[in-house]
Every structure is written in C-alpha cells, then in structure tokens.
Amino acid sequence: MTDFLLIRHTTTDDVDDRLAGRIDTPLNEIGIAKARQLADVLCRSDISAIYTSPMQRTIQTAEALAVACGLAVQPDEAFIQVNYGDWESVPYEELQEIPAWRFFITTPGGQVPGGEHIDDVIQRVAHRLEILSAKHNEDDVVVIVTHGSIIRFTLAHYLGLPVGKSNRLKVLPGSVNGLRLGGREPIVFKLNHQYA
Question: What global pTM score does this model have?
C-alpha cells in the first residue's frame, strides 16, 4: 500500500481573506518560515517522492521539503487548485452575500460559475492518485503538496462522504493529511496534523 501525505501549502496573504483559486499567489514571510519548519520535521520520514500543484504557493512549500529531504519536486497538473471561475479573488466576506456561494459551500458538487464542476475535480485527483499508487512501491511514502479544497474533496471521496459534507473537514495551511491506498479499502490515517 502507498501512503500519501496530502499537504496544504503554507500561508499566503490571501489565506482566510479571499478565495485565491488559481490566482498564483506566493507564500508570504510567515508561509516561507512555516514551510521550512514543516520540512525540518518531515524530512526525518522516509519520503520517496514529492509531487505538487504547479502553483507558486505549493511549489514553494514543496521546495522547502525537497531541499531538506534531497528530493526533486515534480509539478503535476492533476493537483492544481479548483478553478473557482467568477468567485476567484472575491473576499470571503463578500462571498457570504452571494446565494449561489452559500448553496455551494453547503452542497458542493455542482458547476462553479465560470469554473470547474466539482465531480471533474474529484475524478482528476483520484485518477492520478490511483496511478501514483500503482507506480510506487508498496510501503512508499509519497508527498502531495496541494490546496485545501483539493484535500477536502479528496478525503471526502475516499471516506465515502457526500461531497456536500466535505466542508466539515478543516484543512489548515501547512497541515498534513494521511491517505493510504492500494489495500482492500482506502484508509485516512491522519487529518489536519500540524507540525509547524
């Protein structure tokens, strides 16, 4: 079985302020420091590979880990953030006033206005994880540095939860979430664990 550590990128100026989506924001100073702290702890594990969303904030988080572990960063489009279309860069305070947004966060699973269908997001991520699970050796530990929404939707999928319940899963910046694939059933063995 392959253990995946699904890691949300560390802090940017947009975290908790606005829905960044695919706006390519970098880590801020706090995020850079937290990525290094996270790397110092995780590099003690026997990590086999590091894949990342191709966005700045995830690449910067992954690079800190790669340097500490002596591994290469492998950008992978399958792990890119959800395309939130018309809602990207909108402050969360303003989003709360949009009825379609309020509906979406309680029952996600539909088409984001001007963006992606959530079922397509889940399919692209799960398909890639299954390929990576088959590619890597049994007992490998594989890091995926990605985004909070991607991790929530993925964990909900493998837990058998309706995607509308995914917002009950809290995924903080820099958190580590463990998913084991390749056995009879997927196992979530770590949730929102903070090292930094």
Answer: 0.95
